[in-house]
Amino acid sequence: MVAILDAAGLLFYLVPGIVAFAVDITNGTIYIPPGGESALDKHTSAAPPQDPEAAGWRAIPVEGPLSRDNVARTLNEALGTQVTAASIERMSQAGQLALHR
Predict the structure, then answer these.
(1) How many CB atoms lie within 10 A of CB 28?
(2) Are 89 and 101 in contact, with CB atoms under 8 Å apart?
(3) How many Å apart are CA 67 and CA 2, to the nearest integer?
(4) pTM for this one?
(5) Residue 99 in contact with residue 88, Cβ under 8 Å?
(6) What is the pLDDT along the chain (101 residues), one digit of tens a residue?
């Protein structure tokens, strides 16, 4: 009887506790003292920064105000495709934008 209760204790308390502890550490949601690193920090800091040009991105300078119409006109000239001001979903202050196709 004691062995059954010990097994139940391990199954319902120890195993979920270990799983929760592992999940908290990998998500970085557990308290880590200053100067410590979580497993997530080790993985994210080890990833090399991606070169935008190698990923197929290219910078297209926009002359004049950063408005949807002006950006659409600049993209039409630079890319040779039809981009409308209405197809620009989001624009940030840094000049990044999202197009709806």
Answers:
(1) 13
(2) no
(3) 74
(4) 0.41
(5) yes
(6) 878 878 887 788 888 888 888 888 777 777 767 777 766 666 666 556 667 666 677 778 888 888 888 888 888 888 888 888 888 776 666 656 655 54
Burial class (CB in 10 A: 0-12, 13-18, 19+), 38: middle
Q: What angle do CA 17, 40, 36 make, to 5 degrees?
A: 85
Evaluate whether 95 touches 62 at the Cβ level (below 8 Å): yes
Q: Which residue ranges make up each domain of the chain?
A: 2-46, 49-101
Q: Are 28 and 43 in contact (CB under 8 A)?
A: no
Write the single-letter amino acid at 2: V
CB atoms within 10 A of CB 62: 15
Provide the token pair at 49.
């920064």
Position 6: which residue type?
Answer: D
Give the DSSP H/E element, type plus range, for residue 15. Answer: helix 15-27
